[in-house]
Design brief:
By secondary structure, the chain is mainly α. It has one domain. 57% of the residues lie in helices and 0% in strands.
């Protein structure tokens, strides 16, 4: 899915967005938001944001979004590892 929207320049600057990094940073912010609100799993958040679970945990240190994992997600992860 392709989504486009306009961000006022002063807000983009304040948020640390540039034309070069806006897509990556907004994807990560969206992934964090959707995960925090229980809309997507940890694995899907990592996929959407383009990071692994360790990077996700590190990113969550500042906003302190609690890491939760549903039992079925844990089973899928364990099956992938074993």
């Amino acid at each position: 899915m392709h989504v486009e929207f306009n961000i006022p320049a002063p807000l983009g600057v304040q948020a640390g967005l540039t034309p070069e990094n806006a897509c990556e940073k907004t994807s990560r912010i969206l992934a964090l938001f959707l995960y925090e609100h229980g809309r997507i799993s940890l694995g899907k958040a990592c996929e959407l944001g383009g990071f692994n679970q360790w990077e996700f945990a590190e990113m969550n240190r500042e906003p302190a979004i609690p890491l939760t994992m549903r039992e079925e997600d844990l089973k899928e992860d364990m099956a992938a590892v074993l």
